[in-house]
Here is the input.
Amino acid sequence: MRVWNDPHNGEGNGYGGGNNDLDAAKEIGKRAAKYGMRLLVDFHYSDFWADPGKQKSPKEWDGMALDDRLAAVSAYTSRSLTAIRDAGADIGMVQIGNETNNGIAGVTDFNDIPKVFNAASRAVREFDPGILIAVHFTNPEQTDTMKWRADWLAQNHVDYDVFSTSYYPYWHGSLENLTAVLKYVADTYGKYVSVAETSYTFTLDDSDGHTNTVNPNENITDENLLWEFSPQGQADEVRAVMNAVNNVGEKGLGVFYWEGAWITVGDTTGLTGEAYENRIAENRRLWETFGSGWASSFSAEYDPDDAGKWFGGSAVDNQTFFDRTGKATPALSVFDKVHLEEYLEGDADLDGYLTILDATAIQRYLADLTYLNPTAQRAADITHNNGIDILDATRIQRILAGFDDEIEKGE
Ligand code: CA
Here is the structure.
C-alpha cells in the first residue's frame, strides 16, 4: 500500500493514482485487517510517484536543510504508522522509499541517502521492533550495480531486514539473474529478499482509452518474455517469479504484485466513433474527479514534465488481477496455491491447538461473521470434502468429545 505525504494541490484536488494520502492509507489498512491481511506500508516520502526518474521532496519539506529533513522523515514516519495502526491495520512490513535507485525524499547525494534510510528505519524500530523494514530498488538486470547497493547499505550501517527489487520481465533480465542477485544479498549480508513489484500482461487490448505500457507496439518482445500474453501466461509468470525468489533459499521471502487492482473505470472495448469518444470523456471525468487514473491534470503543479503532460487513466488495465468486467484472472489464485504454511487439521483459528473455538470459527465463517485466510480455510476443511461446511464443525466436536480418531498434521 503506497502512501504519499500530500498528493493534493492548493485547492484540494487530488493528483490521482488513488490520491493515496494518510487518510486513504488508514481506510485501506482497516479493510485489509478485516480480511485477515497484514500490510506492507510503502512510504514514497514524496507527494506523488517516486521511481528511479523522480524522488521529489514533499512540498512541505521544500528547501529544508538535511538535518531538518531527517527529523521530518522520522516524525512523519512515526505519526503515520501510529495513525494507520490506530485505524485498525495490522502492519507487518514498512518499505522506506520506493525504487530508491537515485534518491529519496528529495535527497540525491549518495552520502546522504543512507541517512534518510536510517531516519526512517529508526522511527519504524521505535514504533514496533516486530515490523520488518524493507528497502526497495529496481533494475536487477544491472547486476553489479544492484550488488553494489547492498554493499553500500552495509558500509553506511543502514538498519533494515528485507532487500527488495522490482522485477518486470519486459526490462529486468532473466529469472536466473534475479535469483543470483538476491542470493548475493542474502548470503553476504543475511538479509531477507523479496520482489516488491512484478506483473504480466494477460491481453494486449486496452480497455479504458489510456494507452498501456505493454501494447501491440511496445514491450511485446524480449528474450525474457517466456509466457504468452494470456490469463494463463500471467499466472505462469507470477508462479515463475515466486519460484525465482524461492530459489534463493530460506531468505527468499516472497513476491508482491503491482498493480493488481487497476481496472478500467469504464470499458471502451468494442466502442467506435461517437460512443467511444463519449465513453472516454466520461472516463476522463472520473479520473479527474476521483483520482482513479495514474495522474490527474492537477498533478501538473508538482510534476509538470511527466504527470502534468501525460496524465490520464490506467496504463496497466491489461496487467491487473481482474479482467475488464471485473472477473478475477487465474493469476490471483496463485497466491493461495503456493501457500507453504503448516497447519493442524481442524485448527481453523490457527492458534496451534484443536479446541471448541475452531468449531465456533467455522460456524462464524459459514454465517459470514468472520473471514478465514487461505491456510485457515484448508485447516477448517477437516472432512476433506472440498469445502467448509457444518460437517467440519461437527467433526471437530466429535474429536474433542473422544468419538472420532486423532487428528493429523496437514501441509
Ligand atoms: Ca489503459
